[in-house]
Every structure is written in structure tokens, then in C-alpha cells.
TrEMBL record:
Chain ranges of the Aldehyde dehydrogenase domain: 56-521
Span list, region Disordered: 493-518
Catalytic activity: L-glutamate 5-semialdehyde + NAD(+) + H2O = L-glutamate + NADH + 2 H(+)
Organism: Nocardiopsis alborubida
Molecular function (Gene Ontology), one example: proline dehydrogenase activity
EC numbers: 1.2.1.88
UniProt similarity note: Belongs to the aldehyde dehydrogenase family.
Composition bias, Polar residues: 504-518
Protein name: L-glutamate gamma-semialdehyde dehydrogenase
Pfam families: Aldedh
Class of the enzyme per the UniProt entry, highest EC level: oxidoreductase
Length: 541
């Protein structure tokens, strides 16, 4: 059993400003030039060995300049996947025998490396590969990932320290064991921090992992893997396989030793994975833990007492930062008419003025959407909106893929709150606004609660405290992360543990003790110092 020692007290990593003339800006610009000037191989990592794998090649391009190739991977074949699972199993005995402190030290060292010498590299890779602005890369690939690693160590230590009551003559103990088998971590394109957290959280708890990053995030994933190796992650503990994941799932989800699935991505993919696990349920050695954080149709409700300037900023930043490609992005807003009349023109003007372009020009507010598929889907949404009599495009509404996958930040006003624009996750810079009569606040709360299958994030904006209380109660199950007088994005590890319910996921809160406990199979141990030696009760003589 692990000894309980104190671990460094975690604190959120300070967000650097990248102001003109700052040292961090200079270093970042040099990295952007270096990483953007050539194309590299993006190999798998199986048992510590690099290999390109046997499937067809896939290029990672810069979304804002799709002719620029950053690197090339190969789609993992069934053989690659089998080798990754075998490597994970082979590494398991030594990894679980290693003390918690030793495992934790690797992640604490990774956090320090990312905070210092690796910061510019991982941020630049995220900017180039995922089209994040410097501000969006900094809060994701530097700060959030550092926070995940530091805070998880502290949460895991507290879990280990939690021990049961012992009564006279008996010593009760609780041991946090890893799961039997391997964990399959599947990660999305939109956050380098999530990609880094999903394989490492189970690993911290003593598990071995097969990690399948998103192809469009593979450039930053490759560099994250190199960082983990430099931090001392032993070969085989995290096995990174590349590509679309179809062959990997075929192998991993059919393996009797699948112990868990740690997923973040779309609801559709998660349901597919869960279904496959369900179909195989009798074949596993243990019941696999399934943790999935998925899509959202995140809301802003503005009461008639809302501050118009707070509302304007909440919509612009909540809906359009990172091109609306955050699971938490505001994509439906319900605004009281009296406030809407004060905010509409300024909101439209500010939205039209947002600068969009190549993210290596650090003055841009938004970059491109991630790939051709996202671009085509969003371009169609904008086209359809223009001919729909219930919708009015107030700002944006255009898309241009000649150089990069650019979609203008778009505001669509809709008279029918049950329209698709208020229900479906488009995952792009599109927000639908429904204007309601001031006195219909109660009715609109019901529409927000029932209008979409998701329940990830949401915000109420109101200066009237009774309205805040009413919304908080009426929308209790409509969001796992609920904001009062703020935008519904930008959660910080240790401050707003993140995740949602309903179709948005299992709500196990990434970067929390609750999440880590899913990767542990506790053993309760009772030791009796002087055990009874007779079986009969006292009154039986
Ligand atoms: N709730 C959250 O915390 C959270 C956070 C980030 C993103 N998201 C959601 O993620 C989605 C966007 O990310 P995305 O486009 O990368 O999602 P996605 O579902 O398309 O892909 C997610 C991952 O699953 C992989 N994948 C797809 N099918 C697979 C299969 N059969 N086997 C193995 N892997 C498979 C993809 O390659 C990728 O690595 C949005 O819906 C967003 O809301 C949610
Ligand atoms: N933690 C992020 C969301 C991650 C999902 O994409 C936020 O709160 O904006």
C-alpha cells in the first residue's frame, strides 16, 4: 500500500500576456516559425518504440492555411492496435508496483517542463495545428494542462489518504488499486489539455493506457507525448496510436481486459463506444468504467434586469472565442426584449469588427475552424439560415475556404425557439438568439430546460437576485457548469470542475477527485489483532 506523504500544494498556473516586447512573445514567435516551416513524421508510441504504423497516410495541416502540412501520421491498423494493447499489458505490473509518489513525480515534472522550457513549443503546436489564437492556446495547452497535472496529483493523494474508521482491536484500511487491465483514452481535437489529461489521469492512478488522439490534434499530441517521455513516463504506460481509431476500437473494445474508456468528444461517438462495450459486456474480466464528456448546446438567458454590456461581452466571448469550438461555447441565447433593444446594435457592430485570420498574426481574435468537414457543415448551416423565414442573420453568415477554413462569427435571430438552431450542436462560431417578452421569463426558463438534449454549460445574466435564484432552480439539471453573470466558457481546473449531464456526458468532472476515483478499484482491508477462537455466542454457555 502507498505511504501518504504531502504533495506540493497546487495553484493555478498564471496566464502569460504575450504583450508586445515580452520575452514569452519573442520565444513563441520563434517557435511558430520553427514548427511551421517543415513537415515532420507523427509516429505512434508502442511500448516506448516509435513506429509509423501500417495504415494509409493522413496529413495534419494548418486549418487557417490548409496548404501548409505540419506532419504526417498513418492510420493505426488492427495489428498496431493489438501491439499497443499488448505493450500496455506488459507494462502494467511494473507501473502498478511503482509507488504513488514516483508516479506523481513524473506528472509534477511534466507540469514544470510545460510551465517552463516546453511552454512555447506546445502552445505553438496548438496554435498551428488547431488554429488557436495565442490567448486561447495559453489558457488551454499551457495553463489548463499544467493545472490538470498538478491538481490531479493533489486530489489523488487525498483519495489515498481517506481511510475508514478502526475500532478497538481492529485496523481497517483502504487501498486504491488500479483497475485490472488497460484504459482506452480517446481524445478530441479542440483542447490540448483534455488530450493530455485523459491518458495521464488513469496513469497517475496506476493504470496503463492506450491513447488515441484526434487526427486533427495529432501535431500537439506528438509533442505532448515527447514532453511526457522527457518527464520520465516509462515505456508502455501510455501507448499512443494515431488515426481515426476505427481499427483501434475494434481491437480494444473487444479485449477481455478492457478496464475503462476515458472519452471526450461528440455525443454520437460516445454512444457508439458505449454500445460496443454493452455488446461485449459478458466477455470482459471486469465491468469497464466508462467516462465520457460530450457535446453541448450551451445557453445564455438574459433577464430584463441584465446589464447589456455584460450580455454583449458574454455573447461575443462565450460564442466566438476559438471559433465556437468549445464544448462550453454559448450557442443559444434567450434575451428579454427590453435588454435586446439596448444591446443588439452594439453586439452586431462588435461581432462584425472581430478580426479573423492566420493565428500567427497575433492580433487576430479568431482563426479557422478545424477541417473541411466542419467547414462544409457550418457553411450549409449559414446557407440554410438565409432562406429560412423564421431566421434572420444579423452578423456574419459568410464562409471562405480559399486559403483556410474560415467561417465568420455569426448571429442568427430566430422567432421559433424549437428550431434546429436552438437544439443542435454545430460546433462553430454560430449563436442563435431568441428574443422573449420581458414578462415571459418563467416560460423561457422552461424552454431552455427542455429545448435541447444537452446539459453541459449555461449562464443566467440578471441584476435582480430573485431572477438569479429562479433560473438557478429551474435550470438545476440543464447544465453541469452554471454561471451567474458571466459567459458559460472558460472553466478553470480546481475552481469550476467541468462536465455535464443528460446527453453531455457522465459528468465525472475532468480534473477532480471524482474523475480519479473512476480509475481506481479500492480494496478494503480488515485486520483483527486478537481474533475470536470460539464460534458459540456467550448466552449459549
Ligand atoms: N464535455 C466536454 O468536456 C467536451 C470537451 C471537449 C469537446 N467536447 C465535444 O467534442 C466534440 C468535438 O470534438 P471532436 O470533433 O474531436 O469529436 P469526435 O467525436 O468527432 O472525435 C473525438 C475522438 O473520437 C475519435 N473517434 C471517432 N470515432 C471513433 C471510433 N469508432 N473509435 C475510436 N475513436 C473514434 C476521434 O478520432 C477523436 O479522437 C464536440 O461535440 C464537443 O462538444 C466535449
Ligand atoms: N474547459 C473548457 C471547455 C472544454 C471543452 O471544450 C471551458 O470551460 O471552456
Amino acid at each position: 500500500m502507498d505511504a501518504v506523504t504531502n504533495v506540493p500544494l497546487p495553484q493555478n498556473e498564471p496566464v502569460l500576456s504575450y504583450a508586445p516586447g515580452s520575452a514569452e512573445r519573442e520565444e513563441l514567435v520563434a517557435k511558430l516559425e520553427e514548427l511551421g516551416s517543415r513537415s515532420i513524421d507523427l509516429p505512434m508510441r508502442i511500448g516506448g518504440e516509435s513506429r509509423m504504423g501500417g495504415g494509409e497516410p493522413i496529413d495534419v495541416v494548418q486549418p487557417h492555411r490548409h496548404a501548409a502540412v505540419l506532419g504526417t501520421m498513418r492510420n493505426a491498423t488492427r495489428e498496431d492496435a493489438r501491439d499497443a494493447v499488448a505493450a500496455a499489458k506488459a507494462a502494467a505490473p511494473a507501473w502498478r508496483a511503482m509507488s504513488f509518489d514516483d508516479r506523481a513525480a513524473i506528472l509534477l515534472r511534466a507540469a514544470e517542463l510545460l510551465s517552463g522550457p516546453w511552454r512555447a513549443t506546445i502552445n505553438a503546436a496548438t496554435m498551428l495545428g488547431q488554429s488557436k489564437t495565442v490567448q486561447q492556446a495559453e489558457i488551454d495547452s499551457a495553463c489548463e494542462l499544467i493545472d490538470f497535472w498538478r491538481f490531479n496529483v493533489s486530489y489523488a493523494r487525498d483519495l489515498i489518504a481517506q481511510q475508514p474508521l478502526s475500532v478497538k482491536g481492529v485496523w481497517n484500511r483502504m487501498e486504491q488499486r488500479p483497475l485490472e487491465g488497460f484504459v482506452y483514452a480517446i481524445t478530441p481535437f479542440n483542447f490540448t489539455a483534455i488530450a493530455g489529461n485523459l491518458p495521464t489521469a488513469p496513469a497517475l492512478m496506476g493504470n496503463v493506457v492506450v491513447w488515441k488522439p484526434s487526427p486533427t490534434q495529432q501535431f500537439a499530441a506528438e509533442l505532448t507525448m515527447r514532453l511526457l517521455e522527457e518527464a520520465g513516463m516509462p515505456p508502455g504506460v501510455i501507448n499512443m496510436v494515431t488515426g481515426d481509431g476505427l481499427a483501434v476500437s475494434d481491437v480494444a473494445l473487444n479485449d477481455p481486459e478492457l478496464a475503462g474508456v476515458h472519452f471526450t468528444g461528440s455525443t454520437r461517438t460516445f454512444q457508439h463506444l458505449w454500445r460496443s462495450v454493452g455488446e461485449n459486456i459478458a466477455n470482459y474480466r471486469s465491468y469497464p468504467r466508462i467516462v465520457g464528456e460530450t457535446g453541448g448546446k450551451d445557453f445564455i438567458v438574459a433577464h430584463s434586469s441584465a446589464d447589456p454590456e455584460v450580455l454583449r461581452t458574454a455573447i461575443v466571448r462565450g460564442a466566438f472565442e476559438y471559433q465556437g469550438q468549445k464544448c462550453s461555447a454559448a450557442s443559444r441565447a434567450f434575451v428579454a426584449r427590453s435588454v435586446w433593444e439596448q444591446v443588439r446594435d452594439d453586439l452586431v457592430t462588435e461581432t462584425e469588427a472581430l478580426t479573423m485570420g492566420d493565428v500567427t498574426d497575433l492580433s487576430n481574435f479568431v482563426g479557422a475552424v478545424i477541417d473541411r468537414r466542419a467547414f462544409d457543415k457550418l457553411a450549409k448551416v449559414l446557407e440554410d439560415a438565409k432562406s429560412d423565414p423564421t431566421l434572420t442573420v444579423l452578423a456574419g453568415g459568410t464562409a471562405d475556404d480559399s486559403v483556410g477554413y474560415f467561417v465568420r462569427p455569426t448571429i442568427i435571430e430566430g422567432t421559433d425557439p424549437s428550431h434546429d438552431v436552438f437544439r443542435t450542436e454545430y460546433f462553430g462560431p454560430v449563436v442563435a438568439v431568441h428574443v422573449y417578452e420581458d414578462e415571459k421569463f418563467d416560460e423561457v426558463l422552461k424552454v431552455v430546460d427542455e429545448g435541447s438534449a444537452y446539459a453541459l454549460t449555461g449562464a443566467v445574466l440578471a441584476r435582480d437576485r430573485a431572477a438569479v435564484a429562479k433560473a438557478s432552480e429551474a435550470l438545476r439539471f440543464a447544465a453541469g457548469n452554471f454561471y451567474v453573470n458571466d459567459r458559460p466558457t472558460g472553466s478553470i481546473v480546481g475552481q469550476q470542475p467541468f462536465g455535464g449531464g443528460r446527453a453531455s456526458g457522465t459528468n465525472d468532472k475532468a480534473g477532480s477527485a471524482q474523475n480519479l476515483s473512476r480509475w481506481s478499484s479500492p480494496r478494503a482491508i480488515k485486520e483483527t489483532f486478537v481474533a475470536p477462537t470460539v464460534s458459540s455466542y456467550p448466552h449459549q454457555g
